[in-house]
Amino acid sequence: MAGTDRGDLTRTAILALLGTVGPLSRTEIARELDLSPASVTQLTRELMGYGMLEELDLKPSRGGRPAQRLGLVGSAGRALGVKVTADHLVLVDVRLDGEVLGAWECPFDPSSPEALDRLADAVESVVSGTGHGLTARTPASTGDGQVPPLLGIGVGVPGSVEDQAVGTVNAPTLGWQAMPVGERLRRRLKLPVLVENDVNALAAAERLYGRGRTHRDFLVLTIGRGVGAAIVADGRVYRGARGGAGEFGHVPVDPAGPVCGCGARGCLEAYVGSAGLLAAARAKSGGTARLVAGDPVAQEVFAEAGAVLGRAAAGLINVVDPEVVVVLGEGTADWPLWRAGFDPALRAQLYPGRRDISIEVESWDDTSWAQGAAALVLATPFDAAGAAGEQGRLVRARLIGTTP
């Protein structure tokens, strides 16, 4: 793979497109992904060489030569994705084309001395097919009947990870400092393991399978228990110097504001994270917090929080100039309540020429976090010298069958 294309998700975006809409010609792929015909020819040749694409029948033409269609070899590989939260784990088994073969969850205590052993136990139960200690969220499936080879494990965490391939985690919300997640899981499972901030992982999945597939520059904002952001620039997730880019929840709003979970005062998350919303509701209702649609206090709380979020989002948009903003997370279930404050505050603060930017709010399922983690692995076959490092080499070896 070309060393100048490090971290670019374009090859996997081609696979994801074909997995979603079915066989297409090279011309159709170029149009859907806004790529040059020459680039598509080169990239699809590489993918065919890796056994991921195959030429199918000729597509009838209204004139001229019929177009050769390309189809996905769906059995090329699969990955397990794990989302770590403060009280549970979500695990998914995902094929290279994005099809979810199964999803599970189990309770989890990150403060336990055996936390990493319990995490490894959960992954091992999926790998072995026993499902011991897990609750199935969706029935396990083998898709078209073939079980693709397992390429590796992706883990998404609500914190910073300096190096995906090493996987040492600093996550205040989990109580983890320099936690050797990647090292411990690799030693126990004997599989490639990639660890990443959960919002960055979501952005990778959005680039492959979501609305970000047709955009090379976009923002992902997440709202819920916390607040996060991921920046995709020129088709690549921007990680920063130490893997900590996108800590949007810790943009300062008011230095005299409430204490945030990070220890500072007045962070955005302290106002618009779930704990901040409940605190505001209690203050307005005299101690009774009700954040449900139709409740006047809830409407007021969400409108005020939406305005704070909208102003902060406008600042971020003004800085990075994305094509589109995708809003994700469990908090999107209440988006109609957020919108009353968010929309006017956002538009008022945007730089002229950017006020028509599209804000795309996607439907949410908790397994989306884990699918993002799986996308870390599914993108690494095309990352010859990028963030995946040695783990990427191991994933590629498993993909082409040189490792059992």
Automatic annotation (TrEMBL):
Residues 14-55 form the HTH iclR-type domain. InterPro entries: ROK, ROK_cs, Tscrpt_reg_IclR_N. It comes from the Bacteria. Belongs to the ROK (NagC/XylR) family. This is ROK family protein.
